[in-house]
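Per reviewer request, we include the raw input and output of the structure prediction for the construct analysed in the revised manuscript.
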Amino acid sequence: MDGGFLYGGVGKFNEPLLTCLAISWAINYLLLTASNKSMQYVKIFGSIAPFALLAFVSSAIMTDNDAWGGFNLLFDTSTIDFLDLQSWRRAAEQVLYSLDVGTGHLIIYGANRSFHNNILGGVLLVTLLDTICAVTATIVVFGTANIVACKYHIQFSMVFKSGEPAR
């Protein structure tokens, strides 16, 4: 067995991605330790701006008629292999990074909250917003992929295999 594989073939470490993650955590640490008011607004904007961008992109995607075929494929359960280990690994990755543990925005959000608030309410709010964000992002990805498939007259699955349409 190759020593680069983890846990019986689940995957290898991605060193550039690990380096980006370490740099992201270092930047978040520096933002957390900054004490002036202007940095607090930068932290809050950096945590909220992606949600506004996602809402804008999803509303633009929903207006395109070609995107709706991708939405139908997204919610079709016949394409999912529930016994495949790789499917569960990808789901676990999504759970780990969907709460933004990887880039630290959840930590920044928690650092700006006062401790006398009900923590259960905060956890439920973050989890609800995370679920809405994950579903919306997935809808945007599948809608965009179907738009590309219709534009270049290729199969939907080929968009994800090659990363770009064949010329």
